[in-house]
Amino acid sequence: MATIKDVARAAGVSTATVSRVLNDHPSVTAESRERVLAAVERLAYHPNAAARTLRSADVTTLGLVIGDVLNPFFTELARAVEDEARAHGYYVITGNADEDPRRQDEYLDILLEQRVAGLLLCPTDRVSPLVEEVVRRGRPIVLIDRSIDGLDLPVVRSDNATATRELVDHLVALGHRRIAIISGPTSLVTGRERLAAFRAALAAHGLEVADRDVRIGDFQTASGVAAMGELMERPDPPTAVFAADNLMALGALRWVRDRGLRPGSDIGLASFDDLPWFEFVDPPITAVRQQTEEMGRAAVRELIALLNGRPARSRTLPCQLVIRGSCGERQGAQ
């Protein structure tokens, strides 16, 4: 018996597009509609009416779209969301956007067709028409980790500014004066906030951030490797590097290790967002620890408040600076 995936494959479209055609959704192009209907007829596909009826009555399921399932931060976040949702009698359907706005919208589309009771979203780098449509239609939605410019939605997130300032204060106290940053993409609010806080914190110490001390990554390991190489291979390398995310910190650490250098003595290295194994690296990595589990659980509670007709509130959670040995010991100004 043919499935909706078979139809999508035969028509060269996504399963979401097939579903929209079968439900006579106006957003599908005439060409796509013709291909889907031809594939339906050729494969003798018959939608499962019982399953569609079940979906239409589903009020106990929440939808979650995360940025990158390979990032341990999002993995821990998704687990916390699921645990809290189950404690309140809800189940969770999770989609991995892989930091791609198009994939984000595909998952949102699927979740809306599944008629989930509400949505939890870690938004990608731009506002999509679909997200705006969700807001206009009044579908309950809570943002996690990142806000969306121009949309007044409840968001549960970390205090990026205070945590970054505390880390810079620590580096300066150790004697570092040439401090560089591997920033996340400035298209994301977390990237912009951490970079702005980094600049402001150094300025408070009378230190200027030159353009050569800023490298923009993409919250992925490979960008951390590349950025660290660019920073360290110049004639006047920094004495410390702040990687604004754990995967980029791992990439920076890989570059350092591959060249036989040692964090804490040859170069200071710190990360925004801790990892369980950072404490087992030699030397252990200094990191800003987010309240990831509480972030996920709090977002679920705020979404359930919306579902129960109560207002949801935004929350900004404090972080903890975990000082380890990767930035060196107190020394004179460099």
Automatic annotation (TrEMBL):
Keywords: DNA-binding, Repressor, Transcription, Transcription regulation
Sequence ranges assigned to domain HTH lacI-type in this UniProt record: 2-56
Keyword Transit peptide in record: no
Highest taxon of the lineage: Bacteria
Secretion signal, residue range per the UniProt entry: none
SUPFAM superfamilies listed in its UniProt record: lambda repressor-like DNA-binding domains, Periplasmic binding protein-like I
InterPro entries (UniProt xref): HTH_LacI, LacI/GalR-like_sensor, Lambda_DNA-bd_dom_sf, Peripla_BP_I
Molecular function terms, GO-annotated: DNA-binding transcription factor activity; transcription cis-regulatory region binding
SMART domains: HTH_LACI (SM00354)
Name assigned to this protein: Transcriptional regulator, LacI family
Organism in which the protein naturally occurs: Marinactinospora thermotolerans DSM 45154
